[in-house]
């Protein structure tokens, strides 16, 4: 179990790089994808909220990740201490994931399918 957790942790688990890349791409595409000024402002605000939430998560998880690295580096931490650190990381991740999904649904409600695909072209799967 511990090996699996460490593998996930060190090889990309819990990061926000994917969502942030899509948010940045969408922000770049707002002016061309959305014609209505009011809608464009609302979509931009929603995307910035998603970006802000991702940044907040990244900052919040930094401390527990350092604690975990330190605990594994010193070999003096008890299983209970490591479990508490993992629990904190998982709780932060769960809260972030829940918030991000809610923000994504809020954004989706503001857009048509065509507008969504124009905002997130790299997310779109081609039929070929």
Distance between the termini: 40 Å
The overall number of domains is 1
Give the mean pLDDT: 84
Element order: H for helix, E for strand: HHHHH
Structural class: mainly alpha
- Which CATH-level-2 architecture? Up-down Bundle
Strand fraction equals under 5%
Provide a descriptive summary of the structure in words.
- This protein has one domain (16-119): Up-down Bundle (Four Helix Bundle (Hemerythrin (Met), subunit A)).
- It contains 5 helices and no strands.
- It has helices at residues 2-10, 17-33, 37-74, 79-109, 113-119.
- 14% of the residues are buried.
- Mean pLDDT is 84; it is low at 8-12.
Summarize the SSE layout with pairings.
Elements: H1 2-10, H2 17-33, H3 37-74, H4 79-109, H5 113-119
Helix pairs in contact: 2-3, 2-5, 3-4
Give descriptors for this structure.
elongated, mainly alpha, single chain, 128 residues
What is the gist of this entry?
The chain has helices at 2-10, 17-33, 37-74, 79-109, 113-119. The protein has 5 helices and no strands.
